[in-house]
Amino acid sequence: MTKLTRRALLGTIGAAAAASALPAMPVFAADRSIRHYWWGNPERDKRTFAVIDTFQKKNAGIAVSGETIGWGDYWTKMATQTAGRNMADLVQMDYRFLFEYVNRGALKPLDEFAGKSLMIADFDKGPLDGGRVDGKLYALNIGSNSQVMVHNTRAFQEAGIDTDLINWTWDDFAKVCEKITAKSGGKMKGSDDLSLMIETFESWVRQNGREFYGPDGKVTATAGDVTGWWQMWADLRKAGVVRDKNKTVILDPPIAESGVAVGDTAMSHYWSNQLVGIQAVSKDKIGAAMVPHKAGGKPGQFIKPSMFLSLSRDAKDTEAAIAYMNAWVNDPEITGILGLERGIPCSPKIRAALAPKLTEVEKLSVDYFTAIQSKVGPLPLPAPKGAGEVRDAFMRIGTDVVLGKVEVAKAAGTFIEDAQAIVERAQ
Amino acid sequence: MKRFFARNAPAYVFLLPWLIGFFLLALGPILASLYLSFTRYDMVSAPRWIGWGNYEYMFTRDRRFWKALEVTFTYVALAVPARLIMALGVAMLLDKGLRTIGLYRAIFYLPSLLGASIAIAILWRQLFAADGVVNQVLAMVGIQGASWITDPDTSLYTLVVLAMWQFGSPMLIFLAGLRGIPRDLYEAAEIDGTPGWRQFTRITLPLLAPVIFFNLVLQTIEAFKTFSSAFIISNGTGAPSDSLLFYTVYLFNEAFKFFRMGYASALAWFLLVIIAAFTAIAFFTSKYWVHYENERD
Asked: How do residues B53-104 score in pLDDT, each as one tens digit?
C-alpha cells in the first residue's frame, strides 16, 4: 500500500464532502394526456383504474395516467410535486387541505366551466358548496361522508350487545368495550384506541359546545377538552378494554391493519365511505355506529364532503381534464363503477340510478347516512392554514400520553400551546 | 497568464461537463439556499426578506429544533464509534491471512450496499416491531422483548444497530491500512515476547492513526446526514414522540410538508456549520494523535 500523506488525505476528504445528489429529472407528458392523482386502497384503486379504462375507450384521443398512494404518504408526495411545479392535472382533494392549497395558489377555480363542460346545475347545494373558497368553486364534490365506528357484527352478537348504536353515549361505549373484552377472554378488545385521532377529538370538542377552530382561525378548543379526551382513553387502556398501546402509536396505518380488519378489536374508527374498503379486508360482517355522544351534549359529528376532484395549477390540457371530471360525476357507466366507494354522490340523478344495484355493504352506508341525518351538527368552518401541522402535533404529544410518559393534563396544556403557536406562525 | 491557458486549455475543455454541472446544479442552488435562508418562502408566492428572522426563531423559539439536535448528536456519538469499532474488529479478523479473503470481504461489504436502501429500512422496521423477528427469537429464550420501534426510549438504538451493521466501507479502508503496516514490526515484537494486546496498542493503533482519522471524519459527516433510514422507520415524521426526529428529517418536513423553504434553508446552513465545526475540530486535534509515517524522516 502506498503511504498516506496529509495532502492526499485532505484531498480525498474534500472530494467526498463535496459530492452531492443530483435532482431527478421531471417526466414530460405527451399531448392530450392527463394525470390523475388520488389517495387510495386496493378496492378504490381497482375501481378507479376501471374508470380510467372506460373513459379512455369513450374518449380515444385522451390518455389518462393514474397515480395512487396511501393517505399516509399522499400529502408529502403532493407537497413535493407542488413544490416542483409537477402536480397531476387532477388531484383528489380533502376538505382539511383544500384551503391551504387554494391559499397557496395551487388550484384553479372551476366556475368558468360550470354549465358548459361541467354539468353540475342539479347537484345538492350543501355538499357542492363545501368545495367553495371565497365564493369560488375550487373543488368538485365526488362524495359526502361522515365518521363511523365500524364494528364487527359477529362479536357484538356473541357478546349480546343490544345498545342503540346511533344514539349511544361514551358511557355506553365503555360498557360495550368491557363486555366484548370479557366475552372473548381478552383475545378481542372492545375498540381501537382513538387517543391520537384528531378528527374524533374535534367531534368531542363540538360535543362540549365549542369548535376546534374559531371563526378567525384561532384554536378555540381548550386544554380541558384535551384532558377529558386523553383521560377517557387512559382509563379504558387501564381497564384493558382497548387495543395494545404499541399498535396505537403506529400513525395512519392502512385499513388492512385496523383492529377490526385484523380481528384484534371489535370497533375501529373510519369514514363512512371507507366501509366498502374495510368490508373487503375483514373476515366478519361489519356494521356502522355513530361516534358516541356526550350525555346532554351538543351534536359533534357532521356530514362533510369526503373527497373532491380539483384542477391543479400545473394542468396543461384543461379541456381534457374537465371532460374527465365531468364524466366522473355524470356518466352513468362511470358512476356505476365508482358506486359509493368514495362517499355518497351529490347528484340526485346518479343516486337514483345507483339505488337498485347496491351491494349489501353499500346499502349499509346509505342506511347509515339516512339514520344520522338528524343527529349531526353543521359543517364546521374550513380549517386554517397550519391545520395539517396541528394534526401532527396532536399525534406526537398524544403518543407520549398513550405510552404513559407524561401526565395527561400537562400534555394537554402543551398541545394547546403548540397548536396556537403553529396556527399563528402559519398565517 | 497566456502560457497558463495555452498549457491548460485541453484540461479545461475536458473538465467542462463537470464545471457546468458544478456551477449550474451545485453552486447555483447552494447560493440560492443561502439567500432563501433569510426569507420567508412557501414556493408559490415570492420570497420575502426577513433578515435573521429564521435563525432567531430557530435558536430562541423552536423546541423541535433543539430536539432534532439532541437526537442527531446522540446518534452520531453512538453510531460512529460503534461502526468504527465493528469495522476495525472485522478488518483485523480478515487480516489474519485467510485464503478466501476476497469472498469474505465481499460478504461483509454487502450490508453497506444494502443498508442505504429503502427495502432494508422497511425490513428493519419489521424485524424490531412488537411482534417482529427479534422479539420472537428473544421469546424463545424466555425474554419478553420491548416494542423497539414504537417505544421512544429504544427506537434510536435500533438505528444505531442498523448503522453498526453497515460497517463495510470503513472496514475495507481499515483492511488496506492494516496491510500497509510492515510485518517486521510484529516479528520484532514477537521475538521480544510482547503480548498480543500490547502489539495492538503499540503498533497497530499508532500506525493506523491516519486511517482511523480518515474514517472518523467521513463517518461523522455521513452520520450527521443520515436521512432515509430514519425517514422510513419513523413514517416520515420523526415518530414516536420525535425520538427519531433526525435533523435531516426535521428539515425535510419543514421544507416539503409545511412549505417553509426559507426556514428549511436556514436549517440546512446551520447543519453545514455543525459539520464544518466537527471536521475542523478533528483536523486541529489530529496533530496530537495522528502521525504520518513520511513526516518522521
From this structure: 999 999 998 999 999 999 999 999 999 999 999 999 989 888 876 677 778 8
Half-sphere exposure of A6 (CA within 13 A, CB side): 11
Task: Extract the runs of DSSP E, i.e. beta strands, from A94-203.
Answer: 107-108, 132-133, 136-137, 140-141, 144-145, 147-152
Q: Which domain holds residue A267?
A: 147-301+385-426
C-alpha–C-alpha distance, residues B12 and B4, integer Å: 11
The pTM is what?
0.79
Instruction: Return d(Cα A34, Cα A327) in angstroms, integer.
Output: 14
With b for 16 or more beta-carbon neighbours within 10 A and e for fewer, the A60-83 pattern comes to: eebbbebebbeeeebbbebbebbb
DSSP B150: T
Q: Based on the fold, state whether residues A172 and A295 are members of the same structural domain.
A: yes
Contact A249, A399 (CB under 8 A): yes
Placement of cell 399516509 in the chain: A72
CATH number at residue A63: 3.40.190.10
- For residue B142, give every residue at least 6 positions away whose Cβ sits within 8 Å of its Cβ, in sequence order, or none: none
Q: How many CB atoms within 10 Å of residue A288? A: 24
A426 vs B contacts (CB less than 8 Å): 258
Judged by CB atoms within 8 Å, which residues 213-272 of B form the interface with A?
213-214, 217-218, 221, 235-242, 255-259, 261
Is the backbone peptide bond immediately before B240 cis, with ω within 30 degrees of 0?
yes
